[in-house]
Design a protein that fits this description.
Layout lengths: L2 H14 L15 H8 L7 H12 L3 E2 L2 E2 L30 H13 L16 H19 L19 H6 L4 H13 L5 H25 L18 H4 L5 H13 L4 H15 L3 H11 L5 H12 L16 H7 L20 H12 L1 H4 L6 H9 L2 H17 L2
Antiparallel strand pairs: 1-2
Helix pairs in contact: 2-8, 3-8, 5-8, 7-8, 8-13, 10-11, 11-13, 11-15, 12-13, 15-18
The chain binds flavin-adenine dinucleotide and iron/sulfur cluster.
Length: about 400
């Protein structure tokens, strides 16, 4: 439930003159009171410590009081770039039933000019079908989920991701039941610990944590703009029409499937908006509009907090800002792009490179003191003045082309 839905429910007693009781949402492990008591008196609300509490509470992947495998978090093992020759599972496509077809036709008629391709809709709409996708994921994708969690490949929208978020968020799947099924695969020796732990951390860690932050931060959270970003969202976020291959890939699959995986949302569309100084409310509205799993309670902290650093670090300890080198390391996008990821200035230079340094320079007063930003500022300080000027000019010229 998000604020809009809560306001609607709260109005029912008066509007319909009936008693209304709103019960706790049992699709979460941590209720509002528990999150508030965890957050109370903490200087920093870091996901990792919250997650450990959720592991202890749920007893998922625990050997008594200790984490299974000897450590809480195997994230460092979850950053392999994917290779094209690996066999990749494709999520199940569910043929639309009559009701779904009616809705598809209605959407096509009423929203013909909106972003998206309703005719490609292939999500499950029943619990039975959602459970089929869950079983498919456990068998075919989970074993490699950990290794390639951060990878991106041209023409491969899904990789080893679960494509389960719409079902978990609507209540077709139970997150705890799903995590127990993942744990069982690990206990049966069918999947490695970095896959099981990586997946369980997303669900009982990140998902529960961002929901807690959404309610904890209050209604004014949506107005946060710690970096004072004011540029409007570029048109290509709606059309996919851009020469930047990483962005066109991510937006095109969003148009086709209403899906992009986490690293695409964070490090491609999110990273570009952060570097270019796009107004965070525009960014938030875009994410809320375009993904099948989008609900404000989960989308807002992810877009405004995690990806745009607009909350000034309530959620993330540093901005997720990266140059083209990161995208090149984690994907094959750059080898298919008209820009050259190795160049920083000039007509062929990858826009992410100059934009990254422009971001560092532009936000110096807000970010230099952040200990996790020490390295970028050290590198910026080492740079020759002429190079700094050239990079900033390159970035400005590019930004002017965005309109
Ligand atoms: C800018 C931005 C906006 C996002 N908006 C949404 C949104 O509107 N709705 C949404 O459900 N997720 C959102 N996410 C989180 C994440 O990207 C999606 O949950 C994930 O990509 C869904 O695909 P999947 O089911 O294949 O996930 P997998 O990679 O298979 O991950 C497994 C599950 O973990 C959960 N999960 C993973 N990461 C997160 C996270 N950061 N926050 C919450 N849950 C997480 C999801 O339930 C997901 O199904 C957003 C992330 C970013 C960076
Ligand atoms: S070269 Fe730059 S713009 Fe092109 S795909 Fe790589 S990171 Fe994206």
């Amino acid at each position: 439930m998000d604020r809009r839905l809560k306001a609607m429910l709260d109005s029912w007693a008066d509007r319909f003159d009936v008693p209304v009781e709103v019960r706790a949402d049992d699709r979460f492990l941590c209720d509002h009171a528990e999150f508030e008591s965890w957050a109370k008196d903490r200087k920093q609300l870091r996901m990792e410590y919250f997650y450990r509490d959720m592991r202890r509470k749920s007893k998922l992947l625990m050997d008594g009081d200790a984490p299974a495998g000897g450590q809480w978090n195997f994230d460092a093992e979850n950053r392999k770039p994917a290779k094209r020759d690996l066999a990749m599972p494709q999520p199940l496509h569910f043929a639309p039933d009559d009701i779904t077809q009616d809705v598809i036709h209605m959407v096509e008629a009423k929203f013909a000019t909106n972003m998206g391709q309703a005719a490609k809709f292939g999500f499950a709409v029943t619990r039975a079908d959602a459970l089929k996708q869950q079983a498919y994921f456990l068998k075919h994708a989970l074993p490699s989920f950990g290794d390639y969690q951060d990878a991106m490949l041209t023409g491969e929208p899904f990789l080893w991701h679960s494509i389960l978020s719409p079902y978990i968020n609507t209540g077709l799947l139970d997150p705890l039941e799903l995590c127990r099924a993942v744990e069982a695969q690990y206990q049966a020796g069918k999947v490695p610990i970095n896959a099981a732990e990586g997946f369980i951390r997303q669900v009982i860690g990140w998902r529960e944590y961002v929901r807690g932050i959404y309610w904890h931060a209050g209604p004014e959270y949506v107005e946060s703009n710690a970096l004072g970003a004011e540029r409007p969202l570029p048109e290509f976020y709606w059309t996919g029409k851009t020469d930047m291959h990483c962005l066109s890939q991510t937006v095109d699959q969003t148009i086709a499937y209403s899906y992009a995986h986490h690293i695409q949302r964070l490090m491609i569309t999110g990273n570009f908006a952060l570097l270019a100084g796009i107004n965070p409310v525009d960014v938030h509205r875009w994410y809320l509009a375009v993904y099948a799993d989008a609900y404000e309670w989960v989308e807002l902290p992810n877009s405004l907090g995690m990806s745009q650093f607009a909350d000034g670090g309530m959620l993330a300890s540093k901005p997720y800002a990266a140059s083209g080198a990161y995208i090149n390391r984690m994907s094959d996008y750059c080898s298919n792009c008209r820009y050259d990821v190795k160049q920083k200035t000039g007509p062929k230079a990858c826009p992410f490179n100059a934009l990254y340094w422009e971001f560092i320079a532009r936000n110096e007063d807000k970010l230099r003191k952040n200990p996790r930003m020490a390295m970028p500022y050290k590198n910026w300080d080492r740079m020759a003045e002429a190079d700094k000027v050239a990079l900033r000019r390159q970035a400005q010229q590019f930004l002017e082309t965005l309109g």
